[in-house]
Amino acid sequence: MRVFSASSRDFPDSAVMKADRLRLPFRTPVTTCAREFASAMKRLVDAAMPSQCALCGNLSQALLCKGCDAQYWNEPRLRCATCALPLAAPDLRREREDTRVHCAACLESPPAFNDTLALADYRAPLDTLAVELKFRARLAAGAAFAHHLHALFEDSDLSVPDVIVPVPLSRARLVARGYNQAWAIARPLARAMGVRADASIIARVRHTPAQSRLDRDARRRNVASAFSISGDVRGKHLGVVDDVMTSGATLDALARTLKLAGARRVTNFVALRTPKD
Ligand SMILES: [Zn+2]
Ligand SMILES: [Zn+2]
């Protein structure tokens, strides 16, 4: 995978945080002096390079300013436990002996995956973060998605996956973009959960046309047999990570392929969910 450069806005404090957290083996006047120097440098860099909130443009050293961070994450939205589609109260459907709520589509024709966690709907202003991550390599957005997905997971009663995998890009698309935005979320999410992340288990064997121009059935056909599995997933619970879930056809096809290869359970972790087709 290509290593690419990014501006200091993408990594608000990374360089200075490293200096600040220098792990020196023992405390001597020299190491104390080094710490004070690093701390002074951090303050200097912070003051010299003010950064902007990715959403509102206010000055902020973090990806989002405190106001946006408090306002936009974890919107209180009731979602289908299987596909994370937002539900209005009259849409509520419960299976017997299941306290989770589901949308009608998942009850009538369950997808191959078992559960989906989504942070918010794919709409303004958080869609900006997905665009920044996908097209402008703003990896801090991936870390922020991962941080909030981990918090959402901790609040859920879902079991911890055995391994976390990103939805893969085709080779051609990976070469063109230089990185997989889903991996930018998957890796920090796996680290936070204390499980392994593996980008090599699933490959995208077919370069599928852009999904957005197709209707729901065409999307299903479009992604059928688009994936191949190279690792041993038998009996495993996989956590599948993507930035945006639109119709769910890609994740359904991926979960179907994983289940055919013997996977026990598939839980999707998506940053943003498109409310309706
Ligand atoms: Zn802001
Ligand atoms: Zn559903």
TrEMBL record:
Protein name: ComF family protein
Family from the record: Belongs to the ComF/GntX family.
Gene3D superfamilies for this protein: 3.40.50.2020
Positions of the Phosphoribosyltransferase domain: 184-271
Source organism (scientific name): Caballeronia cordobensis
